[in-house]
Amino acid sequence: MNRPAPRTLRTVTGELPAASVRGPVLAHEHLVLDLDRLGDGAAVLHPEHHSAAVTAELVSLREEFGLSLVVELTCRGMGRDAGALARISRDARVAVVAATGWYYEPFHTPETEVGDVEQLAGLLVREAEGGIGASGVLPGVLGEIGSHGDVPTAAEAKVLRAGARAALATGLSVATHAQLGRGGPAQLELLTGEGLPAHRISIGHQDLLDDPGVHRELAAQGAYVAFDTVGKSAYRSDRDRLELLLALLEAGHADRVLLSCDISRHGYLLDEGGQGYGHLFRGFLPGLRAAGADDGVIDLLTRRNPLRFLTGASEEDN
């Protein structure tokens, strides 16, 4: 069954009409996370220890910039906690969309080893329709479904195909993790090869890839190009990110861009000296404005595009 895309957003506290989202959206973030494979506790946002700091940041961004929605892409095998997301959302009074899917192969959970594409797609559909665990929270996006390298491994290709089939069955869109920005064209080919329209796909971490040609190619095919690690200077400077973004905008693809910071460890939080979730608004967008982007472009990049992505709206629906 190919179900039409929804016109409302599935948030962790219930359905929300997309038209009611009047402020900016963070299109790829983590509020709760556990990617710790070294035992050092660095790649963690534990709800017991960090939710107060996370909530405080979201409150500040709602009050200062009107932050209305966070797309939270912690999925299976990444320490997802839907109940904690619901508490943070209610306390911050910022809507949150939760996710389901599988990250890239080192973080795959056991069911991916034994299930085939159709079985894994069925698991995602059941979660989309029945909720995440006992929380009752319905995921509102499939992601961040991942791969690493220029071509997904066999295991990664399997979960990408499963994500595409689940998207077709549920009407949800797919956000990917492209490790260090690589492999986006191969991801898009796999997903569209299953029949999923490109405008329901966001290819992740493209601001880590110094290849404007790939960015234009993805956008020209209709996919969203996620510049979603803004502020992560250890990977790339924001000056370089801005140049890559301006090249994509100048090529006529402003309607294909998503922006976010991908906060993925406690060291990135403001109270631990990091850039915080607000770096997009405080540190990056002022530079984009200085380069000539007006309020309409900023609204397109930070609100209208992510809403169109989440609802699966095509250009004709705009």
Describe this structure in words.
This protein has 318 residues and is an alpha/beta fold. It has one domain: TIM Barrel (Alpha-Beta Barrel), CATH 3.20.20. The chain is built from ten helices and 13 strands. Strands 8-9-10-11-12-13 form a six-stranded parallel β-sheet. Strand 12, helix 8 and strand 13 form a beta-alpha-beta unit. The longest helix has 19 residues. It is globular.
Give the strand order, joined by hyphens, for the main sheet. 8-9-10-11-12-13
What is the helix tally? 10
Poorly predicted ranges = none
**% residues in beta strands:** 15-25%
* Biggest sheet overview: 6 strands, parallel
Pfam families: PTE
InterPro entries: Metal_Hydrolase (IPR032466), Phosphotriesterase (IPR001559)
Family: Belongs to the metallo-dependent hydrolases superfamily. Phosphotriesterase family.
Protein name: Phosphotriesterase
